[in-house]
Amino acid sequence: MNWKLAVSTAALATLIAGPAFAQDKPQLAFVVNAASDFWKLAEAGVAKAQSELPGYDLQFRYPAQGTAALQNSLMDDLVAAGTDAIMISSADPKNSIDAFNRIAAQVPLFTTDSDAPASNRIAYLGSSNTLAGVQAGEIAVKALPDGAKCMGFVGFLGADNAIERIAGFRQAVEGSGIELVDVRGDDVDFARARSNVDDVLAANPEINCMVGFYSYNPPKIYEALQAAGKLGQVTVIGFDEDPVTLGAVRERSFAGTVVQDPYQWGYQGMHLMAKYLEGDKSDVPDDGLIIVPTKIIDASNVDAFEAELKGRIGG
Questions:
Q1: How confident is the model at residue 67 (pLDDT cuts 50, 70, 90)?
Q2: Of 52, 208, 248, 293, which one's alpha carbon is 20 to 30 angstroms from that of 123?
Q3: What is the pLDDT of residues 38-54, one digit of tens each?
Q4: Could you tell me if residue 102 is inside a domain?
Q5: Is residue 50 a contact partner of residue 36, using CB atoms and an 8 Å limit?
Q6: Pair (232, 254) in one structural domain
Q7: pLDDT at 114 over 90
């Protein structure tokens, strides 16, 4: 992690934890689904929003582990501590509806990254994961005009963001000769994410395309291919902007990656909740969906994109 971001986030954590915050300041919390470097940009967005919302106490929280039970327990603790609004990326939305509704009955609840539309959340702010999956499929179609057999890798197979990305990918490659044979889940266990790729390389020699659907999956694919001497022989499509992924795109080891904008989720999410608490609900659309666009990064635009990222986190 960049040292300037480390300083800024540490300072934010100190402010959050310290006694200097008066109890009369409304508290807003951003809760993620697991500890991952992917969330550092969202954390930077929250830090930027804190500088513009001095009348609020903004918290950025990681669960102890990436499970729905621990996420839901964390939300209960936040509400008990006086948190006034929460935005969360759900690890398992389908099995968290009761917990979400319990929280939503007490404080305004918003979702990001992975939606829980069957719950009483107020709005979702994040990517269209279906459209992001379609973009990943478009990368594959362009890179593999003769077709391919692909294997996918993802964290939570049951999470809405995973289900929608996989569906979007399959939609985009339909009729192209590209087949997504299967998707292996790892429950955000990084060692398992790597071993999933190693297992496929050993047992499925027909696989000539891999798709990493979560931010850490493409780097694990890179590690496994490099160790097996197959880097560049298997076409890889990534998600998100891990430095390893961007480097692989730059050197053309990966065909491309679909990037989201977690910085804006953190930044816009804090402003959205603050306005909502102040009685201004104008930013909440009728369908409850606030979509932050995703985009394709390939060798032609990776340098410009990386420069933009460095500007946001201070280097």
A1: confident
A2: 52
A3: 899 999 999 999 999 99
A4: yes
A5: no
A6: yes
A7: no
Cα–Cα–Cα angle for 296, 302, 306, rounded to 5 degrees: 110
- Inside any domain, residue 310: no
What is the number of structural domains in the chain? Answer: 2
User: Residue 58 in contact with residue 270, Cβ under 8 Å?
Assistant: yes
User: Encoding tokens for residue 52?
Assistant: 């513009």
pTM of the model: 0.80
Q: Which two tokens stand for residue 310?
A: 């460095």
- For a pLDDT cut of 90, what percent of the chain falls above it? 81
Q: How far apart are CA 58 and CA 125, in angstroms?
A: 17
CATH label of the domain that carries residue 203: 3.40.50.2300
246 vs 252: CA distance, rounded Å: 10
pLDDT at 190: 95
Phi, psi of 166 (to 5 degrees): -60, -45
HSE (side-chain half, CA atoms, 13 Å) at 300: 2
Kindly state the average pLDDT of the residues 162-179: 97
Residue 89 token pair:
């990326």
Specify whether 190 is located in the same domain as 68.
no
